[in-house]
Each structure stands twice: as C-alpha cells, then as structure tokens.
Amino acid sequence: NGFSAEKLRRRLANTPLNPDLKLGKVRFDFVPDRGAQAETGLFDKISVRVDGAEFRGFPLGSLAAELEQIQLNLPLLDETGELQVLSMGRLTPHVKVDADKLRGFLMNQAGKYLTDAKIVLDNNRVKIDCMSRYGLSAGVTVGLELNREEGYIFQRIERIKIGWFRVPRFLYKHFADRRHSLLSGPGMPFDLNIRSLELQGNVLKIN
Hints:
Elements: H1 5-13, E1 21-31, H2 35-40, E2 42-55, E3 58-72, H3 74-80, E4 85-87, E5 90-98, H4 99-110, E6 114-122, E7 125-132, E8 137-147, E9 152-162, E10 165-166, H5 173-176, E11 177-181, E12 191-192, E13 197-200, E14 203-206
C-alpha cells in the first residue's frame, strides 16, 4: 500500500474524470517532488499539462494548470480509483482558445436551433451574433475586465439585439453589470489565480 511519486503520477494519469471530457497525454509534476508528500496526499503544488483536450466535442487544445496547497484523498484513490480533492488553496489555469473553436462548440451544442453564428473576440469583448432556423437573428456583446488588485472579473453586457430591435439597456441593467470574484468563498473553496485576461485578435487567452 501507499504511493511513491511515480506510482501516483501513473494512477492520476489513468484516473477517469468528467465523462464529457476527453484528454490526450497528461503529465503531473509535484513541486517539490518529495516522497513524503506522495504518502500523505498533501502537496505544495501539482502542475498539470494536457496535450490535447476535448469537452463535448469542443477542442480545447493544450491546457495547463497549477494547483497549490492541495490535498488528495489517497486511500480512496488507491481503493476505488476515484479522484477526490479534499482541499486546495489556489488554482492557476492556462487557457488559449480562438473564436472559430468557440463558434464550432456553439453550433455543435445549439445547431438544431441555429443556421449560423459569428463570434468575435477583440478589445476585451465577446460579440456573438446568431441566426435561428426560424429566421430570427439575435446578438449580444459582453465586455470583460480583470481587476487583479481586488480579485474579480467585471462583466458588462453592452448590447442585446433581437432582429432589428436593440433592447434598451435599462431593461436589463440589473443583471448587465456583475463582478465575478476570483477569491475563495461559497461555491468556490479556493482562489482562482488569473494574472491576465486577454480577448484580442479573435483569441481568448488566460495567463
């Protein structure tokens, strides 16, 4: 019984996660790489690298993340193969997705309702315009701004359009502006470390 660092790498790499999530080659690195951590399940940091991932048919490309002050339930992993995170201090994701992939995902998920969709990522805004199978067009523009000092992402809905009619902002302003906290709290038991958020040139890039 018990885990060496290498045994834990192999077990984690072969542990099924979300059934909707397909992963390519996965590598786990423990920092620092100490055998005692593999025995207790408590790590300063685990770095994860995925060469090719897909969620519900949507290609995510290569992904990476750092998970800090993390504790795994090793007895459960050893007995059942189930991965359970008991606690985590901070998660740092690294994501890069282009607009064409987002459009493909949207059409894959809502294609039975839509005939076409256009997504533009630029100037820290997401602009989506769609045409339904019933001949009705709709569009929305959302601005995103990262506030690193206070730890939140500010979302502002700037445009909602249905057909030729642009919905006056006062009709939806009560939910148009929102702060999404990156700090631990109800519903998110860890800090989300986002150092940079860019939407430029039809590419979304996080960190």
